[in-house]
Amino acid sequence: MNDSPRVIVALDHSTADEALALITALGDAPYAVKVGKELFTREGPAIVRTLVARGTPVFLDLKYHDIPNTVAAACRAAAELGVWMVNVHASGGPAMLRAAREAIADGAHRPLLIAVTVLTSLDAAELAAIGIKDSPEQQVLRLTRLARDCGLDGVVCSPQEIAAVKRECGGGFLTVTPGIRPAEVSLDDQQRVATPASAVGAGGDYLVVGRPITRARDPRAALSAILDEIAPAIRQA
């Protein structure tokens, strides 16, 4: 954990050329990257192989959610690509989560397996609209306990739930936190957000940052500012 990158830059780009240009612009600061649905759908596994070959830690953010056998096969394929982290939806249920964990347990390369709880774009009203009457935190903790009991490494949660997840599962259970916004940056479509320093101060492990870096006039400077902001909180942890 101490040697792992704490900031995961979301490659919210349409093409491999755009994504690789950003990586060149970011320089050699310590960070990982997140490859999500748009980039992977356009470029396929080739972009992941390219990034892995460059030595860049890759979080493959495809949020697998399907029958257990299908998710297990997908996680195994992700591990074979050499990704550093992969995620599944906790709401897929215990059989699916266990199948995912078992699929990567014996491979030559075992990525971190993280469960998505409640998307940071959802608030209480959005949850109610899909039939979930509990608060976002209650739903996050329910799915967190499920992921922990099924042997996963951690969860994706908003900054607002980091402290509760750590109280529930202990410091070794990882949190991956989108919804990170420096104080001067727009919230965009995120609902449950925090600044980088407050997220790390709450016990957050990995911070996912997209538009505040990728759309900045100077992405390298934006990343450096975030790393500088979280450094004191990391030292105090």
Short summary of the structure?
By secondary structure, this protein is an alpha/beta fold. Helix content is 46%, strand content 15%.
Describe this structure in words.
- This protein has 237 residues and is α/β, with parallel strands linked by helices.
- It has helices spanning 16-26, 37-43, 45-53, 68-81, 94-105, 124-129, 136-149, 162-169, 196-201, 211-214, 219-236; strands spanning 7-10, 32-35, 58-64, 85-89, 112-116, 154-156, 174-177, 206-209.
- The protein is built from 11 helices and 8 strands.
- The chain is globular.
SSE layout and pairing:
Layout: E1 7-10, H1 16-26, E2 32-35, H2 37-43, H3 45-53, E3 58-64, H4 68-81, E4 85-89, H5 94-105, E5 112-116, H6 124-129, H7 136-149, E6 154-156, H8 162-169, E7 174-177, H9 196-201, E8 206-209, H10 211-214, H11 219-236
Parallel strand pairs: 1-2, 1-8, 2-3, 3-4, 4-5, 5-6, 6-7, 7-8
Going by helix content, strand content and strand pairing, the class is alpha/beta
Largest sheet: 8 strands, parallel, barrel
Write down the domain tally. Answer: 1
Count of strand segments: 8
Keywords:
alpha/beta, TIM Barrel, 11 helices, 46% helix, 15% strand, globular
